[in-house]
Design brief:
It is a single chain. By secondary structure, the protein is an alpha+beta fold. The chain has helices spanning 2-13, 24-27, 140-154; strands at 29-36, 46-54, 60-68, 71-81, 89-96, 104-111, 118-122, 129-133, 162-163. An eight-stranded antiparallel beta barrel has the order 1-2-3-4-5-6-7-8.
């Protein structure tokens, strides 16, 4: 846990280029987790997805749903937009399970600019990352293009990402 707290503090100091002019309302809804850099919260999870909903106060509720060992997993988070111009940098906190003083950067670094069919959330020190899609599956061609761009533009190690099993 100390490692993650240190990484979060360092990540607020570091910065990465994020999506310009994110349409928050278009962004809301269900995003299936296609691939992730494994972390202790999601390790061993499958059929995972996030549900995003915009609250009246401008904050964003995020629910992570998954299965692990055939049991349901649910994490709830609350996000505040910290980049009010482009709306692609957020600060999140866990609300279930509740971890006091835990805040983490959440940065939308890539998105399908036409239909918002896929997106990537990055972490400034590249220790975490998520490739997500509105669909449960993503073509190998598109997946490869996203990994290539992550390596070129953001200096991510492509081999660090692991696909998440999405059973039908």
């Amino acid at each position: 846990m100390r490692k993650y707290i240190f990484l979060i503090i360092v990540s607020f100091i570091l910065n990465m280029e994020t999506v310009q002019n994110l349409d928050i309302e278009k962004f809301m809804g269900k995003w299936n987790v296609i691939s992730t850099i494994p972390n202790f919260f999601e390790k061993g999870c499958y059929n995972s997805y996030d549900l995003y909903s915009l609250n009246e106060d401008g904050s964003i509720s995020i629910e992570y749903h998954a299965l692990k060992n055939e049991k349901k997993v649910l994490y709830k988070q609350q996000a505040q937009i910290v980049d009010t111009i482009h709306k692609s940098k957020w600060k999140i906190r866990l609300t279930k399970p509740w971890i006091p003083f835990f805040r983490a950067p959440y940065q939308v670094i890539m998105i399908d600019s036409l239909d918002y069919n896929y997106m990537v959330v990055g972490f400034p020190d590249k220790s975490l990352g998520w490739i997500m899609s509105r669909d449960r599956e993503m073509s190998e061609g598109l997946y490869g293009q996203i990994l290539d761009e992550l390596a070129k533009k953001f200096d991510y190690n492509k081999d660090g990402f692991e696909k998440v099993i999405q059973y039908k």
